[in-house]
Amino acid sequence: MKNPILFRILFILFLLSGSLGAFSQAVIRQESCTNDMIARQADSLKEAYSKEGYIMVREASMAMESEYEMPVIVPLTEGTKYQFVFIGDISSRLYEVRMYDWQERMVIFRQHKWGDIDGNIISYAFTPQFSEFHMMKPVQVNKSKKKSLCGYVMMFKKVKEAEKSVVAIQ
């Protein structure tokens, strides 16, 4: 080889690139799950909010681990009324939802315990002051099951009278 210094540099870079994978952190990916009780609760809430003039914007089931937040990022429009719902596994003892705006200020905090009236469902209304992304972070604490907890999030949007006819046509 004509340039041994270049060869040595390339060889060192090759070795370093292979070792970087060992130092990377594991990524928690959102996976869906199924739970018949949560599905029935979600269907009832969809029907109830539909009667109040809301339309479903987003919904997702997600596999969760006890005591780990699962971030959900949503774009919100200024002045629009939204209704957010988190349904946790019925066997969990504690349910929390925090919502942050784009500047990472907490705008919502809700906590339910197993014996509360609403139990495993946290629902709250929110009207953003700015059109920007917000992050919803639900978490549930379960002493007997650390993994394989099912959670369900829904986002509804209040529809104005003029928009109702457009939604009905589609």
Strand-helix topology:
Layout: H1 4-23, H2 36-51, E1 54-64, E2 72-76, E3 82-87, E4 94-100, E5 106-113, E6 121-126, E7 132-141, E8 149-158, H3 161-169
Antiparallel strand pairs: 1-8, 2-7, 3-6, 3-8, 4-5, 4-7
Describe this structure in words.
It is a single chain. The longest helix is centred in the N-terminal third of the chain and has 20 residues. The chain is built from three helices and eight strands; from the N terminus they run ααββββββββα. It has one domain: Jelly Rolls (Sandwich). The protein is of the alpha+beta class. 26% of the residues lie in helices and 37% in strands. The mean pLDDT is 84.
The tally of beta strands, per DSSP, is 8
Instruction: Note the overall shape.
Output: extended
Estimate the helix proportion, in percent.
25-40%
Q: Which stretches are low in confidence, meaning pLDDT under 50 for 5 or more residues running?
A: none
Number of H- or I-type helical stretches: 3
The secondary structure category is: alpha+beta
